[in-house]
Amino acid sequence: MSAEALLAFDGVAVQLDGCEVLSPTSFSLRRGEFVCVIGPSGCGKTTLLRVATGLLAPSAGCVRREGRAMERPSREVAFVFQDYGRALLPWRTVARNVALALEAAGVPAAEQPARIEHVLGTVGLLAHAHLYPAQLSGGMQQRVQIARCLAQRPQVLVMDEPFGALDAMTREGLQDELARLVRDEQLTVLFVTHDLDEAIYLGDRVIVLCAQPTPQQPSLAADIDVPLPRPRHQVATREHPDFLRLRRDLYSRLRQP
Amino acid sequence: MGAPGVHRPAAWSAWAISPDALALLGTLLALWWLASHGEWVNRAFLPTPEATLASLAAGLGLQGRPGALGGFLLATLQRVLLGGLLAAAAGVGLGALLGSSAAARVWLQPGLEFLRPLPASAVIPLAIAVFGLSPSMVLAVVVFGAMWPVLLATLHGMASVPRQLREVAALLQLGRVATVTRIALPHALPDIFSGVRLAMTVALIVSVVGEMVASQPGLGQALLLAARSFRAADLFAGLVLLGATGSAIHAMLAFAERRLLAWQRP
Amino acid sequence: MPLQRLRPLAVPALLLAALEAYARTAGAGSDALAPPSAALAAWGRAFTDRSLFEASAFTLGGAALGLAIGAGLGLAAGMVLGLAPRAARACTPAIELLRPLPSVALIPLAMMIFGFGLWMEACVVAVATFWPLTILAQAAVRQVEPQWLEVAQVLGLSPWARATQIVLPAIVPRLFTALRLGAGIALVVAVTVEIAANPHGLGYAMSLAQQSLDPALMLAWLGWIGVLGYAVNAGLLHAERALRARMGVA
Lengths: 257, 266, 250
Description:
By secondary structure, chain A is an alpha/beta fold. Chain A has nine helices and ten strands. A six-stranded mixed β-sheet of chain A has the order 6-7-8-3-9-10, with helices on both faces. Chain A has a four-stranded antiparallel β-sheet with strand order 2-1-4-5, covered by helices on one side. In chain A, a hairpin with a 2-residue loop joins strand 4 (about 60-65) and strand 5. In chain A, helix 7 crosses helix 9. Chain A is globular and about 55 Å long. Chain A starts with a strand and ends with a helix. Chain B is about 75% helix and about 0% strand. In chain B, helix 3 runs parallel beside helix 6 (about 135-160) and helix 3 (about 70-100) runs antiparallel to helix 8. Chain C is an all-alpha fold. In chain C, helix 9 runs parallel beside helix 10. Chain C is elongated. Chains B and C meet through helix 1, helix 4, helix 5, helix 8 and helix 9 of B and helix 2, helix 5, helix 6, helix 7 and helix 9 of C.
């Protein structure tokens, strides 16, 4: 395990209801890396994330953050839910929703407005700070969630198919925004998606998980680097020969039984 | 505990009284006038509208001489509001305590649901045995009876917090108390409001019954005295006042709900 | 697991045991508390001397009579209001004016007109059940699938045929729920009327026991009222589920 690994999965295995959802899996994230995890349904992507955040204890192995084992959730690892509607507080405005993270961290009230403003500016929601989640579109609500996670100043940002519930145009806009944000704030990201194109477009590395692991075919099927240049472009990058090559390669790996 | 059911808050300012409705109210009033003057029903049971109005005015001291109704109204109002407030505080407090502990919910909630259909007034004899025929007896029963709808509503509201929000609390390392105050209780507020509405209905009912049984000054007693002396106009005046009290309380709650739950209707 | 079925009874059983211990020792001779065992014995005596049946029959009878009147009128009124939105708009202010008056306030009026007895109680119960049933019936009608009403229009059904052939069968399950809730209210109001004024039935028996300084008997009546309420609701719930299954509704 590299000494610079920020988040390391060390033989993490998960058994649920007597069924092995994740066979012993090991990989690590370096600081500043954007790692995407893809796989068919039932391959344990969401389970992997829940173990990464400390919401679920692994049946074997452990997750280490900066070398120390993670046993419970920590503010250092922020989680973005796919179902943004249920992850925001409907009775608080956008600004106050972001404030929740600061309140939890015990940030003094005097400091909060400045930090909220900064984070909302980063996601482009400063003009909507006084609105309630119900008054916002799906894409904007997801941005509020991301803003709240950023307010935690986390070491790692873990995202569970965050754009899955959005329409294609909104999704593309948010992908680029996320890429810019990650670059500007120098974040480390673990991103789960079922969309192969999205995984290659966003990631520095793509990890492929397969369902129903066997001793011959463990959960971790592939861990592939994405050598595409940054910043990425919705049209140019997707036409890049390396993109198409990776896509063909991963597509066949995903379809493997 | 036992009260007439479903009630959506009717904001007074929100109804435009349509000409149809006005016509209906006018017709009802006319019918009353005809029935009482024409003695379709025994005059001792159905007073005329004017007699009712006169009794109301006299009772409220609007005709120069002091009247008893004003005092009775205040006594009942005081009892209902104080009892309701205490019941709401107790209900939310206990609900928050029980609701924050999964173990408490599992062991206690089924038993509490069993108590739901029990009439609050049924504990009056027990309360008399403990407190005697006193104002504190009535207040105690009001608080006891009105507390249950709020308690059960709080528990229900807290139990329905979405999984994602509970996990957000864990991920932010919010801690037990902060999770209850910043997430569970605000989420339960709409349910709590329904519970409080029901509680105020129960409080009014139990106050009136308590006043009748324990001969405590209040609108309940006023009605009973009027009935015993066959003073129909005074009885109807009391009914009008009691109805107005019920309406006023509901209007107040509707107003409070619209302010506190403004985020539900952006 | 059968043990889990008994879990709801654990805490109440514990409380009863505590009450038993307290009432036999520190609380002995109290006018308010009695050991549950003594209450059970008192209940047994009421059973054997038939006062249990008389009181229960009166209360249940008064509640049933009142429910029949109140629910009968309420369901009919609710259905009419649900089917005729214009009438509903006209009636809403009048309803909102009259509804906040608690039904118990009518006890002195009923007493004045009918004296004491079954009719006085039934009248108050009728008024108490009328409002919730009207509202529930109106809501039930409004929740009928709009497409079914369109079918009625396409088939050219008369308003009466539409009401009886399409709306009524569609709302029967919800009407039954409304009736069950109404039964609960009826029982509660009946007992309340007896405690407040009417010298008959379960409420009066309980008041009498308290006035005779017989806490065991008083607690016996209180417990019996609770059991009866629970049994009535459980019975109607069972019937409702059977009805819904029969009609193919969830």
